[in-house]
Structure formats: C-alpha cells, structure tokens
Specification:
224 residues; four-stranded antiparallel sheet; binds ribulose-5-phosphate; single chain; globular; Rossmann fold; alpha/beta
Length: 224
C-alpha cells in the first residue's frame, strides 16, 4: 500500500453512519472514495456524498455511493481532500485539477475538513513548488492578470494541449508566481479582492486536521 492510499484509508475511518461526506478530487481522494465504497459494501456503512468535481461524481456513482448535487446541501459533516502544498500553519495550496470552486465551497461548508497528503506536499511557504492557480472569468482574464501583476504576480493562462484549460465552472486559470516573502493570508485577501477572480487555490484557516503519510506512518497535525 502506498502512502496516499494509507492516509486515505485512515481518513475513511473517521466516517460514520448517516454522515454527509464531501469527496475531494485527485489520486489521494480517489483512494478515499474507493474505501468509502468498500465500507458501504462490506460494513454496511450508510453515507450520502457530495463531490467536488465531475470526475469524482462519476467515480463515486460507478462505485455505488449515493451522490447528491451541491444545490441540495447547506452544510456537510466531513470533507476529505488532498492538497498540492501544506505549510506549517496548515494553509493549503490546491487546484492542480480544475475544480477550485467546488473544493473551496465544500471545505467551507464542512464541520470538519481533513486534508490527506504524503510528506512530499510539505512546504515552508505557499507557492514554493507550484504557481498559485487563480480561476478567472473568461472575459476578465486580462484585467485580472493586470491587477495581479500590480501586486507582483507573474504568470499566464494555463494551457491544455493546444488550447486553454477550462475549469468545471467554465473559468480560465491563471497560474501566477508571487514574491515568496508575501504572507499567504495577505495574498489570499488580495486575490479575494481582485475583480474577475472567481476563486483561487490558497486555503487559509479551512483545514482542521492534516494527515501526513510517510513510509507507512501517519502524522496528524491539528490547527491551533
Ligand atoms: C485538485 C487538488 C488535489 O487535491 C491535489 O492536486 C492533490 O492531488 P493528489 O492527491 O493527486 O496528489 O487540489 O484540485
């Protein structure tokens, strides 16, 4: 069993009967979805799920999980998802996929948000390994990019083959690099205040617990 699978299985043990559970997106989240489906079949676990992406919806449905659409929920009990970067303050960078809007909605709606990662995701500061994904309204991308450049951002639209990447929300994505000295919560606020930005990949103050797997062991870090 690899570390991503191990940590996903550990998180799945936090799921109890009659919970409404948010399903993340990505390879670690996929292991979590598979484990929920296994527990449903073998342990008679009864859960309702809400997915953060079309791909996770399809996966959960194919495995026989009950999936409701986001329109039907106002809060959820638990959200489990991976991340691309995790800082010592438990700020996350997410969004290498294309589902930031639903991911952040579920993270905010959850009583408990458990992030599941392997040790390769630990960083000293947000943006250390990846640019910040920033979803922008298609017609506003140049205006938003110009505003972001004024606070030191550099980058461009994410490509997908010969075309542009489009999120499941229908947005374009700017992948932008900022000054590493810029505090993540300040950058978070600046991005939130940029007209034309739909959502972005910095998740500040949303994660209660991060489970970190490394060589078969799991470390649990809790937000202060
Ligand atoms: C998708 C995400 C993923 O959770 C993140 O990219 C981690 O993926 P993986 O579990 O495959 O390493 O934020 O938008």
């Amino acid at each position: 069993m690899n570390d991503k699978q191990l940590v996903a299985l550990h998180a799945a043990r936090q799921v109890h009967n009659d919970m409404v559970v948010g399903l993340g997106t990505g390879s670690t989240a996929n292991y979590f979805i598979e484990e929920l489906a296994r527990r449903q079949t073998e342990e008679n676990l009864h859960v309702t799920t809400v997915a953060s992406s079309v791909v996770s919806t399809i996966k959960a449905q194919q495995l026989g999980l009950r999936v409701v659409s986001m329109e039907h929920i106002s809060h959820i009990d638990l959200y489990v998802d991976g991340a691309d970067e995790v800082t010592p303050e438990l700020t996350l960078l997410k969004g290498r996929g294309s589902d930031l809007v639903r991911e952040k909605l579920l993270a905010r709606a959850a009583d408990h948000f458990i992030a599941v990662v392997d040790r390769s995701k630990l960083v000293a500061h947000i943006g250390e390994k990846f640019p910040i994904p920033i979803e922008v309204i298609p017609f506003a991308w140049r205006l938003a990019k110009h505003t972001l450049e004024q606070i030191g951002g550099q980058g461009d639209l994410r490509k997908n083959g010969d075309g542009l990447a489009v999120t499941s929300h229908g947005s374009l994505v700017l992948d932008m690099v900022f000054d590493p000295e810029l505090d993540a919560s300040i950058l978070d606020a600046a991005l939130n205040a940029t007209p034309g930005v739909v959502e972005h990949g910095i998740f500040t103050g949303l994660t209660g617990v991060v489970l970190i797997a490394h060589e078969g062991q799991i470390e649990e870090r809790r937000a202060p």
